[in-house]
Write a structure and sequence with these properties.
Blueprint lengths: L1 H45 L3 H5 L9 E4 L2 E4 L1 H11 L3 H4 L1 E13 L2 E11 L4 E12 L2 E9 L1
Parallel strand pairs: 1-6
Antiparallel strand pairs: 1-2, 3-4, 4-5, 5-6
Length: about 150
């Protein structure tokens, strides 16, 4: 009887560890994917490709971009502001992100804190917080606060 009880406990512990491991893996998976997407964003920016940079923003009127001028709602308005404020590759400079904190809030939400730096004639930089969500199988930025 004691042996059956020990086997049940072993099976329970094994199952618990397996499912806990799956949960940790799936949560870290979002962080890994988003790290790669942000590297693609950085590369697109550095080629002067605002369209490629904006590919990872949610194409919705509900996108929120918060900057020094306040809050902008919507993908198109955010895109238009980038085009207006960065009309050429000289103004865009070379972008470098530094990811300081990445937290998987759920299997479909990741919160990021980081810094950005533009190397150009007049260098500029600051910090950002991003909320990424997995919508329709694709990771997108739904809120961006950059200062």
């Amino acid at each position: 009887m004691k042996r059956k009880s020990s086997n049940r406990i072993a099976v329970f512990i094994t199952a618990f560890l397996f499912f806990t491991g799956l949960k940790i893996y799936s949560q870290n998976q979002g962080v890994e994917v988003i790290t790669q997407l942000m590297m693609k964003q950085e590369a697109a920016w550095n080629k002067g490709d605002i369209d490629g940079f904006m590919e990872h923003y949610w194409k919705s009127d509900s996108l929120k971009f918060i900057g020094k001028s306040g809050i902008t709602y919507g993908w198109q308005k955010t895109y238009d502001n980038y085009r207006k404020n960065y009309p050429d590759t000289k103004t865009m400079g070379k972008l470098q992100f530094q990811l300081m904190s990445m937290e998987q809030l759920s299997p479909t939400a990741v919160y990021i804190i980081g810094s950005w730096h533009l190397e150009r004639e007049n260098p500029v930089g600051g910090h950002f917080t991003l909320l990424w969500k997995k919508l329709n199988g694709k990771w997108v930025i739904v809120a961006d606060h950059t200062s």
